[in-house]
């Protein structure tokens, strides 16, 4: 009896007292994805030590940058071409190897395509539950996350030995670089060969702000009617405002714009200072992706459109006259 109970008590004490998190650092061309800084803030809220994992062909510069952030106590680097592009089949074994060596209590990544791709595979390999898209932290084992497209908020408690968590970046402020200089060491070796191979990517180059982190977003809906109209009206308006362009799913499905622009339950979740919805009705699946915006404005020719119920400012007008007029006025 006594022999069996004592180690258990000891372990409980140890896990409650010594939180140690692993933060997956997403980066490209030596730039760290801004959502990583939001995730770092979430990791800091858990308390304890934070180890940053930087993997890639040339992880050195990113490792030096993340080491400067207050709260980061160590940086693990994995230098290999296989880690470029965040392929989960090679990245997940690396995270699992780091976990086996360092015994973290929490593994965190942002809820971006990168984190959503890798962490569920890590959770499966470790045989623990995945906790997705958290917007709040109530304790080291208790998290807040939206469910049903944000229509309900769930509080989830995990008894797993390690918590595998993706973080909604708009719910946490970005951590700021400081004058920390956390030590760097190589990450444990892991299997790098995989049946999955990176073939290539086609990226649309844009000078406009990035949708996920822009402070202003203008989104177009089905009412734009064509790709030509969408390009002409939405992109001119965005440029006049210094805004990123978003879209409803109806606009994407109708081929008016690229699917990377989709805002909503099955698209991006944004929370800019200003969100302007143009010719978008405001379906719950769309609202799930933008309702946390600070100021919501809408242009719609139907006064009954649901978007106007959540908008701070509504303009009941035909977008084909209102948008060019607004764009001209903004240019002045
Ligand atoms: P509509 O609903 O057709 O609205 C068009 C609006 O434009 C109307 O309000 C109309 O009054 C107005 N309008 C028309 N003409 C003019 C004009 N000349 N001037 C001004 N206003 C005009 N949707 C998303 O957006 N994002 C998602 O992530 C998403 N995920 C989904 C997931 C699931 C599982 C499902 C079932 C649906 C999802 N949807 C999503 C689709 C969603 O339900 C709606 O169908 C979609 O958002 C509608 O897009 P819309 O507002 O552009 O089109």
TrEMBL record:
> What SUPFAM superfamilies has UniProt attached to this entry?
Adenine nucleotide alpha hydrolases-like (SSF52402), DHS-like NAD/FAD-binding domain (SSF52467)
Pfam families documented for this protein: ETF (PF01012), ETF_alpha (PF00766)
Where is it mostly found? mitochondrion
Cofactor dependency: FAD
Q: Which GO terms describe its cellular component?
A: mitochondrial matrix
Q: How is the cofactor bound?
A: Binds 1 FAD per dimer.
**Keyword entries, A-Z:** Electron transport, FAD, Flavoprotein, Mitochondrion, Transport
What role is this protein assigned?
A: The electron transfer flavoprotein serves as a specific electron acceptor for several dehydrogenases, including five acyl-CoA dehydrogenases, glutaryl-CoA and sarcosine dehydrogenase. It transfers the electrons to the main mitochondrial respiratory chain via ETF-ubiquinone oxidoreductase (ETF dehydrogenase).
Q: What interactions and quaternary structure are annotated? A: Heterodimer of an alpha and a beta subunit.
Name listed for the protein in its UniProt record: Probable electron transfer flavoprotein subunit alpha
């Amino acid at each position: 009896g006594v022999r069996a109970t004592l180690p258990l008590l000891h372990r409980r004490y140890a896990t409650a007292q010594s939180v140690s998190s692993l933060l997956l650092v997403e980066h490209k061309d030596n730039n760290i994805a801004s959502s990583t800084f939001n995730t770092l803030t979430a990791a800091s809220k858990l308390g304890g030590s934070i180890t940053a994992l930087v993997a890639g062909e040339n992880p050195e510069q990113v490792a030096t940058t993340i080491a400067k952030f207050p709260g980061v106590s160590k940086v693990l680097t994995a230098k290999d071409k296989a880690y470029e592009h965040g392929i989960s089949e090679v990245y997940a074994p690396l995270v699992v190897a780091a976990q086996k060596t360092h015994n973290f209590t929490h593994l965190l990544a942002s809820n971006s395509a990168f984190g959503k791709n890798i962490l569920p595979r890590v959770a499966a390999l470790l045989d623990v539950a995945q906790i997705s898209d958290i917007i709040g932290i109530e304790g080291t084992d208790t998290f807040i996350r939206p469910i049903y497209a944000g229509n309900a908020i769930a509080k989830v408690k995990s008894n797993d030995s390690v918590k595998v968590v993706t973080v909604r970046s708009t719910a946490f402020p970005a951590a700021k670089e400081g004058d920390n200089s956390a030590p760097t060491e190589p990450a444990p070796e892991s299997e790098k060969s995989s049946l999955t191979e990176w073939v290539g990517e086609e990226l649309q180059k844009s000078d406009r702000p990035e949708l996920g982190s822009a402070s202003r977003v203008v989104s177009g809906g089905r009412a734009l009617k064509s790709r030509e109209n969408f390009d002409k009206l939405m992109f001119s308006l965005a440029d006049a405002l210094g805004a990123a362009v978003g879209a409803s799913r109806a606009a994407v499905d109708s081929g008016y714009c690229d699917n990377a622009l989709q805002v909503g339950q099955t698209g991006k979740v944004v929370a800019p200072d200003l969100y302007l919805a143009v010719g978008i009705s405001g379906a719950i699946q769309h609202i799930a992706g933008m309702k946390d915006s600070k100021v919501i404005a809408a242009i719609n020719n139907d006064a009954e459109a649901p978007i106007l119920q959540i908008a701070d400012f509504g303009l009941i007008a035909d977008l084909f006259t209102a948008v060019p007029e607004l764009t001209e006025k903004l240019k002045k």
